[in-house]
Each structure stands twice: as C-alpha cells, then as structure tokens.
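Posting for a labmate who doesn't have an account.
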Amino acid sequence: MQARIRIAVIALGATVLVLGSAVGILAARFDPNAYKSAIVERVREKTHRTLAIGGDIRLAVYPRLGVHLGKASLSELGGKGEFAALDSVRLSFALVPLLLRQEVVIDRIELRGMRATLVRQADGSMNIDDLTAARVKTGAGERAGAAGNAGAGAGPARIRFAVDSIRVDNAHLRFDDRKAGRVVDIARLNIDSGPIAHGVPSRVALSANIGVDKPALNTVLIFESGFSLDRDTRRVAMTELDANLDLSSRAGIESRAKLKGSLQIDFGKEMIEAALKGKIDDSAVSGKGALRDGMLQLDIDIDRLDVARYLPRALPAVPAAPVDAGPAPDQPIDLSALARLRASGTLQVGELTAGGLRAANVHAVLQADAGKTSIKPLSATLYGGNGNGALSLDFTGDASNPRMTLVQDLRGISLGPLLFDATGKTPLSGRGDVQLALATRGASSMALREALGGTAALRLRDGVIGGIDLGRLVREAKAAAGVGSGADSTGFSELNATFRIDGGLAHNKDLSASTPLLRIGGEGQVDLAHETIDYRLRCTVVPSLAGQDGPAVGTLNGLTIPVALGGPLAQMTWQVDAAALGTEAAQKMRATLPAGGKEKLKDRVKDVLGGLFPR
C-alpha cells in the first residue's frame, strides 16, 4: 500500500514538473505582441471604437500565469475622443482549468491608472450604450453556442470569471450627467477586493475622493465591508460596513461622518437599500434609506442638530443684533439644489437649533417630487409650548426663486425668548398662542421679507410691549411727544391682535390690550422688511384708578388718550394728539356741567391740557 502511494506521489510530481516546463517553454517561445494588430482590428470591427496599445503585452509564469499589458486606451464610438485609458493591467489565470478543460478562468485582476468618462445626454442616452448592448447580444450568442456545442465535441476555449481578488490603484472616473446638469468626479479611487464569485463571502476596501459640481461638494470616502454576490438575482449584499466620510464645500461647509451598518444593491431593479448608524459631527444618527427609480426614501433619527453648521458660509457670520440695531443685513439665499429633489421620509430630532431658534422633539414628514417639496406635519416642543404646522417649497415657476409657504400653530409659547433667539430683539413678550399662515419668495433675506404675505394672530397674557412706557406717559403727563428707548416698556395682562400681511407690511385694525392703568386699542401697520412702524393707539384710563398714581390720572379718569407711534422699531417716536384729547375731554365734561356752564367748561379743559402739556 505504501509503495502505491509513493508511486502516485512521484507520478504527480513528475506531471507537475512536465506541465510547468511546458508552460515555461510556451512563455519563452510565444510572443503575444504578434497579435496586437489583430486585437485592435477585432475591437474596431465589433465596437467601432479604436483600441490603442502603447506598451508591450507580456506573458508571466511566476507567481501566477497571466498577461501583463502596458498603456492602452479606447476611443469613443466612431473613434473620436478618448473614452477610457489605463497605465497598466494584469490578468492572472487559473492553470488547471486551462490545461484540463481549455477554460480560461480569470482569477485576479490588477488595474493601475485607469481613467474613464461616462456621459449621459439630455435624452437619457449614454456613451456606453453600444458596449452594453453588444455585451448583451454577445452573451446571448455565447449561451446559444454553448447549448449547441454541448454534445458536438470540443469548441474554442471559454472565458469565465472567478475572480479571487481585484485591485484598482489610482483610478479616475468622471460622470458627465447632462440630463441632470451635474458632473460627478471620482478621483484617487483605490479598491482591494477578495473573491468575487456567486455565493462566496468576501470583503472589500475602498477609498476615493468624490466631487460634485452642483451643489459644489467634495467628499473623501474610506470604507471597508464584507459582501456576497448573488448572480441569479443580480444582488450584492454588504454587511459589517464601516464608512468614514469627510465632506467640504466651496460655501465653507465641513462635516465628518463615521457610519456602520449594511447595504443592499439590486442591479436588476436598480435599487439601493441601506441601514446605518453612527456619528455625523457631534450628532448621533441612525436611519434607513433606499433609492428606487431615482426616488430617495429616508427615515432618520438624530439626537441633536445645529442647522447653522450646514448652511453656506460665503458671508461672515452675523452675530445676534443688539436691541438698538436696525434691520438685519441682507444675505443671499440659494435653494436651487432642492429643485430636482425626489425624496420622501421622516425626520426625528431630539434637540434642534436653527438660526438661533431652539426646539425639541421635532417630527417632520418629507415629500419632494416634480419641483415641489413639503414638510407636513412639522411639529415640535419649543419655548414652553408646542408647535404644529407645515412648510413647503414650490420650484415649478422658477427653480432659482421658489415660492415658500409656512403654516404654524404655536400654543402656550413664551414669545419674548423666541423673538430674541430669532432676531436678537424683544419688541413684544408674553405667553400664549401664535397662528401664522405666510408665503413669500426671494433670492435674499431682504427679498423674502419684502415679498412676505399672509396672516398672523396673537393671543398673549402677562407680557410687555417694548419701546414705550404708556403708563408713565399718563402718570407723569409732562410732554406731548418723545422718543422711545430700549429701557421703556408697557406691561399688559392680556393682548390680542390679528394681522393681514401684504408686501412685507403687517396691517392691524383690532389690537386690544389691558394694563392695570389702561385699556388699549389700536390700528396701523408694521414694515417687517425695514422694521419701521406707523401706528395709532387709543389708551383709555381705567376709571377705578381715579386719583391714584399722580394728579393727571384723576383728571383723565375715563378719557381716551390718542398716541401715534412712528419711525424705526428700535427707536420709535410717540406723540399724543392733544387736539383730539381736548375734544373728548370737553365732551365728557359737558355731560357733568349744569346748563349755561360752557365758559366754565372751556376754562376747565384749558386747565386739564395745560397741566398735561405745559409750554
């Protein structure tokens, strides 16, 4: 028995030695460069493209049987322009299938310095359509030929891919998508992969620098993942994916992400599905997503998010304006990148900061397609209350200047802190309800304010009107006009008002407010774009306070004091209408005087006005 085993081992060794010698002799005597012209002509005949082979074709025996090709390039269809090129390629073959079954099995591919440009025209056609169509036709012909030759004896050597590894060094791919008006540039692409075969678990490592021109973004991507290929369903499943991204833009946005999870790619259905979690900057993120027929589906959960971090920084950051500052500086706003968005999904944010505003438990449902984007519902808890509403963008009329609408119902909020965080100013404070239904469009912050239209309603309690102290004006009654200041304010127990907004002007006719001293009504308008006011107040002294808080209050018991407000909100002027006040005072006093007391009435009115507004 041992003798037979020894003989078999010797025979096997001799066979390997003979085969190795034969391969070595073949490599020494066979010159593949003699076939270069035939290969070039074959490619031209089959593809109508020009193949240029600049370097030599060399056979290699050690460490693997294979072919090494130097510089080469392939033209666009018709031979004009370069479609793809490479510095070198090495293909390695499995020896046993070649010798025993005349089957060429490519088990290793190495590409260096590959360059290619893919172009999609406005009609959707691509510059590789001829190659993919030829491949499908050739594949069908090969299957038919294989079936016909199954019992007809030996045919030409078959080529089969059973890649044990693939390596790509410093590749550069460019996708010119003229239909979408966007160019994607993938540079410094490096791939190192294990076996690529049906049902065989493997791993891949990839790094690349990915640039997009619209919007102008650049991403450095590094990831590793396990994967398996299902040839029958044309699906690739990636597991234990570990990805790192460094993103930057010309607008000054920078972001880093580290994500783990899984990815499914279905080439038959042209679909990608992902489930990822990890960190994006300072935010913990988890979510699921899918891309089907160009529609992006996302469900994302974020613990905290600062939106300002991801806004363009083309202009220096503007600090919160002090109380006595004028209107906020105008800043450009470009939302055109969202015009082609096709997406749906949900967003949950534990803590959100946006433009100084703060909210918690944010829930938003996104729907974007055909140039229209809506977020509905849009709900959150904020400033001691709750908000619920919707936000929409309509790009169908003008992709660079969309129509924006906001509907929001705020209940039980603290208005003062909200206004201060939004604008750096507190012209009005109090706790209560605010309803907004607004629409606008514009390419800058000023244009948005100037085009603002819609309605607003306020119902507040226990608050303050900033810029003027109406109570002190009545108590002291020393002047008929003045300039308000940040130190002045009027406290109220209740305030209600509705506004009609048109062209950035907020018109009001039904203001009503109550203070311990006054009952206040009013009408007028506020210029929201330029932050000015043109308003008329009617301040009626509460009768029960006659004789209190100074001599003038008792004199004005029950009278309505007209006060005109004007100028910039930060330094608005006020003026008492003395003539109107005198007329009303005379009317009220006439009712209390006996018949024939007109002369006494005139004297009394003069005394009242003289005490209020001394010369």
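Reply:
Got it, the structure tokens are right above this. Residues 8-19, 134-157, 314-324 have pLDDT under 50 and may be disordered.
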